[in-house]
Amino acid sequence: VQLQASGGGLVQAGGSLRLSCAASGGSFSNYAMGWFRQAPGKEREFVAHINWSGSTTYYADSVRGRFTISRDNARNTVSLQMNSLKPEDTAVYYCAASGTTGWGSTFEGEYGFWGQGTQVTVSS
């Protein structure tokens, strides 16, 4: 499956952005989907995941209550609504698809397909 992330940009602290990830070339509804991010000089970290049907989600403590992951299996898309953004949310955000589990995982090794990343910059 091929993934294309979009929606990144520059926003002031306290603002909102919505990231989208479009999937093609596979059975999207079979995959759990995740969002990860990588800040400059840091390792990539888990942000959120959603199971194959959209009924179950899970978030990193750092974003819980501010970010919402959702999916539309009819449109083969997964989104990440980011509210109350903070400068520490600045990173390249990646969407990923898991072919090993339909329920999602916090471990990037469980995800076999990755998008190209989209830059999110939050100014203070």
Helix content: under 10%
Q: State the low-pLDDT regions, or none.
A: none
Report the count of strand segments: 11
Strand content: over 45%
Elements, N to C (H/E): EEEEEEEEEEE
Could you characterize the architecture of this molecule?
With 124 residues, the chain is mostly beta strands. It contains no helices and eleven strands. It has strands at 2-6, 9-12, 17-24, 32-38, 45-50, 57-59, 67-72, 77-82, 91-98, 113-114, 118-123. The protein starts with a strand and ends with a strand.
Summary tags:
mainly beta, 124 residues
Task: Summarize the topology.
Layout: E1 2-6, E2 9-12, E3 17-24, E4 32-38, E5 45-50, E6 57-59, E7 67-72, E8 77-82, E9 91-98, E10 113-114, E11 118-123
Parallel strand pairs: 2-11
Antiparallel strand pairs: 1-3, 3-8, 4-5, 4-9, 5-6, 7-8, 9-10, 9-11
Quick synopsis:
The chain has 124 residues and is mostly beta strands.
